[in-house]
Design goal:
- By secondary structure, this protein is of the alpha/beta class.
- The chain has four domains: 2-118, Response regulator (Rossmann fold), CATH 3.40.50; 129-192, Orthogonal Bundle (Helix Hairpins), CATH 1.10.287; 201-350, Heat Shock Protein 90, CATH 3.30.565.10; 376-488, Response regulator (Rossmann fold, 3-Layer(aba) Sandwich).
- 45% of the residues lie in helices and 17% in strands.
- It is built from 14 helices and 15 strands.
- It has a five-stranded mixed β-sheet with strand order 5-7-8-10-9, with helices on one face.
- A hairpin with a 2-residue loop joins strand 7 and strand 8 (276-283).
- Helix 8 runs antiparallel to helix 9.
- The chain is elongated and about 100 Å long.
């Protein structure tokens, strides 16, 4: 009768002849269990209790017991003590009450399945993040090792300038590598939170691709790859940020180089399809399994079995590519015939009108110190090594410097007669931070015309807003890009 009633309500049911059969069916799964009170007196009820007690943490199967009127029997009392999720329905029952109770139990059970899927997703994401952090630690250790060795060699004995230059260049390359790793992390953080700003203008994709090839050339030549280019006969112009688009195609070329054995073949092609520009990057490298073609663009995803082939990265380059391309109104997809059979990444971008005004090439940054800059440069940083090193660097360029290791020390120096024309302030200092110090310096009438530069590791939009409100003229990120500092001056 219960089967017939629930079937009319379009609720799927399965009848079990006894408790043993019910216990077996529970291994397959169930939305809810409905039992007559009399069944609970069966000795096999112990097996049912055991199965229900061994459920996964997310699971709590609803148990509906059809009981005699009164529902005060010893069997019912024991069932309610032993089983957590029990609902007792007294007989005789109204059909509407039975259907309503069953539907409520099924809705609750469905929420449990949703919770299971959520927990599975969280576990997978946590595993990805764990692997990512392990990769990050490994990739940061890689450049630290040769830097440490070079420093040890320089300290153990005096070296001629020409001989020492080799070690300095080595350390410079490794520092550049670490900066790229950290910048990638910052880029992903900004893009995924929608905090990135694009400088949109008419951009010729041919020039962008040539710039990307130049950026990737050291990696391509280091692995002795053969690079072929196929560019469209006419200029293809898109509206976008040239720097970011160069980053997109450089990342794709770097990815192809890393996942292709030395001496491999890589090809980049630019063509036109309707109102879209299409850029394809091909390689004959390790390839991609079909089940990974969609997920490789997700954060923290690494293609299994290929991590050793791609030393020198964090595996977030494709996340950057997808995010930047979509910010330009385009799309990116990956195709591969399978592992060991190479891969192709295809980027599609909407074309703007042909003949749009193209930006003029930017000049190179000035490498010298501005001779017209007045006064002393005040450097304030609680990291003594960082402050002293920056002071030595600026002095080598002809600047006069004064170093303070705290905000209070900087204010004392000004009170004692140090009147800087430029102040480079760290932001994250204990006690008085850089923003508070900037406000106090701006309030000093003796420092009218002072140029304030924030030099900090904090680069999020909220940090930029707070720094701007404190009265800074410029915001530079650590480590200092000297060309950028000279340029803003």
């Amino acid at each position: 009768m219960a089967n017939a009633v629930l079937a009319r309500a379009q609720i799927d049911t399965h009848s079990c002849a006894n408790l043993c059969e019910l216990v077996q069916e529970l291994q397959v799964g169930a939305g809810a269990i409905m039992l007559a009170e009399e069944v609970l007196a069966d000795p096999a009820a112990a097996a049912l209790n055991e199965v229900l007690g061994s459920q996964e943490p997310w699971s709590d199967v609803p148990v509906l017991i059809l009981a005699r009127q009164g529902a005060d029997s010893r069997v019912i009392a024991e069932a309610m003590d032993k089983l957590a999720n029990v609902t007792v329905i007294e007989r005789p029952m109204r059909v509407a009450s039975l259907i309503s109770t069953v539907r409520t139990a099924l809705r609750a059970r469905n929420r449990q399945y949703q919770l299971r899927d959520l927990l599975d997703g969280l576990r997978e994401a946590d595993q990805r993040k764990t692997e990512f952090l392990a990769t990050l630690a490994h990739e940061l250790r890689n450049p630290l090792a040769p830097m440490s060795t070079a420093l040890t060699l320089l300290m153990r004995k005096p070296h001629e300038a020409a001989e020492a230059l080799r070690y300095y260049e080595l350390m410079g390359r490794q520092i550049d590598h670490m900066v790229r790793l950290v910048n990638d992390l910052m880029e992903v953080s900004r893009i995924t939170r929608g905090k990135i700003e694009l400088r949109m203008e008419a951009v010729a994709l041919e020039s962008v691709i040539k710039d990307a090839i130049e950026l990737s050339r050291p990696l391509l030549e280091g692995a002795k790859h053969e690079l072929a280019t196929e560019l469209f006969a006419e200029p293809l112009v898109v509206r976008g940020d040239g720097v970011r688009l160069t980053q997109v195609f450089s990342n794709l070329l770097n990815n192809a180089a890393k996942y292709t054995a030395p001496g491999g073949k890589i090809r980049i092609a630019l063509r036109k399809e309707g109102r879209q520009a299409v850029v394809e990057v091909w390689d004959n490298g390790t390839g991609i399994a079909s089940e990974m073609l969609e997920s490789i663009f997700e954060m923290f995803v690494q293609v299994s079995g290929t991590s050793k082939a791609a030393q020198g990265g964090l595996g977030i380059g494709l996340t950057l590519v997808k995010s930047l391309v979509e910010l330009h109104g385009g799309s990116v997809e990956a195709t591969s015939a399978g592992l060991g059979r190479g891969a192709m990444f295809c980027v599609r971008l909407p074309l703007t009108r042909i003949g749009a005004d193209l930006p003029r090439p930017r000049g190179t940054a000035i490498q010298g110190w501005p001779a017209s800059l007045p006064g002393t440069v005040l450097i304030v940083d609680d990291n003594r090594d960082a402050a002293d090193a920056l002071s030595d660097l600026l002095q080598s360029l002809g600047a006069s410097t004064h170093v303070a290791y705290s905000g209070d020390a900087a204010l004392r120096a000004v009170a004692e007669g140090v009147l800087p024309g430029l102040a480079i302030l760290d932001i994250g200092m204990p006690g008085m931070d850089g923003c508070e110090l900037a406000i106090k310096l701006r309030a000093n009438p003796a420092l009218k015309g002072l140029i304030l530069v924030a030099l900090t590791g904090w680069g999020q939009q909220g940090d930029k807003d707070r720094i701007a409100m404190a009265g800074f003229d410029h915001h530079l990120l650590k480590p200092l890009d000297l060309a950028a500092l000279v340029s803003v001056l």
